[in-house]
């Protein structure tokens, strides 16, 4: 049984349907990426898993439990965390306050969770008292990821983690994601940087116009001439 199973999902915003019969799975420990053209519905697919869109059909199951109609707070409690692409830190709060917010559903924040995040992102420990809004884009992205890791989720949803980062920071970000996955956290990631994402992941989905187009191991998609021609710029 997969950790996450999305079946025949139809979803969108109000009356506007974006996803049409989307199927998606993530196995325990797996690193899965979703790529595709602008407006394909990649972010919408991820938001739908986290209870942030209007559900119009199909189902989402996590760890065998139906979460299709759950709200994000219920979903977080079940072991899923989400890092949105934009506005993913509280700019006027310090780094540490942001991290503590990541565990707001707990009565008290375990210091072991804070230490684990600081060990993974030493820059956050160095800057624990700094206001998040004064940090660089890359550091804010690390903070957003750190905050999502505060509850030690089984599955981490990442929406465009490399967006807006300088090229050397993009590699560092992907290395961090590899490390997080290597210690047992499953990953579902949406990325514009399709070639890099497919090279790094275990398995990839190509979405177009709200529908599944291709699914295979990342390397197999990179080697597929049709995928290359249609979606990866040749
Ligand atoms: N909150 C919203 N309300 C209404 N329509 C939305 C909303 N968010 C996204 N859309 C629309 O849904 C469609 C799919 O958007 P989505 O962001 O999921 O695509 P994407 O594949 O992630 O694209 P991109 O790579 O450009 O982020 C687009 O037509 C977009 O305009």
Automatic annotation (TrEMBL):
Q: Which organism is it from?
A: Halovivax cerinus
Q: Can you name this protein?
A: ABC transporter ATP-binding protein
Q: Which InterPro entries match?
A: AAA+_ATPase, ABC_transporter-like_ATP-bd, ABC_transporter-like_CS, BCAA_Transport_ATP-bd_LivF, P-loop_NTPase
Q: Which family does it belong to?
A: Belongs to the ABC transporter superfamily.
Q: Which GO terms describe its molecular function?
A: ATP binding
Pfam families cross-referenced by the UniProt entry:
ABC_tran
What residue intervals traverse the membrane? none
Boundaries of each ABC transporter domain copy? 4-234
Instruction: Recite the UniProt keywords alphabetically.
Output: Amino-acid transport, ATP-binding, Nucleotide-binding, Transport
Give one GO biological process term. amino acid transport
Q: Which residues form a coiled coil?
A: none
């Amino acid at each position: 049984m997969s950790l996450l199973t999305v079946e025949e999902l139809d979803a969108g915003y109000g009356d506007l349907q974006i996803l049409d019969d989307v199927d998606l799975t993530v196995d325990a420990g797996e690193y899965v990426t979703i790529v595709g053209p602008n407006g394909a519905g990649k972010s919408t697919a991820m938001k739908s898993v986290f209870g942030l869109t209007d559900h119009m059909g199909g189902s989402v199951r996590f760890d065998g439990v139906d979460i299709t109609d759950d709200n994000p707070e219920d979903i977080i409690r079940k072991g899923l965390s989400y890092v949105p692409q934009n506005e993913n830190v509280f700019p006027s709060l310090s780094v540490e306050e942001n991290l503590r917010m990541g565990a707001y559903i707990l009565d008290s924040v375990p210091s072991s969770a804070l230490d684990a995040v600081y060990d993974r992102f030493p820059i956050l420990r160095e800057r624990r008292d700094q206001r998040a809004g004064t940090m660089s884009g890359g550091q804010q992205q690390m903070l957003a990821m750190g905050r999502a890791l505060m509850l030690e989720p089984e599955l981490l949803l990442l929406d465009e983690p490399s967006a807006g980062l300088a090229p050397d920071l993009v590699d560092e970000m992907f290395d961090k994601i590899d490390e997080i996955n290597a210690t047992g956290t499953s990953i579902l990631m949406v990325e514009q940087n399709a070639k890099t994402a497919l090279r790094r992941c275990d398995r990839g989905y190509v979405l177009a116009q709200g529908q599944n187009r291709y699914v295979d191991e990342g390397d197999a998609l990179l080697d597929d001439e049709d995928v290359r021609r249609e979606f990866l710029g040749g």
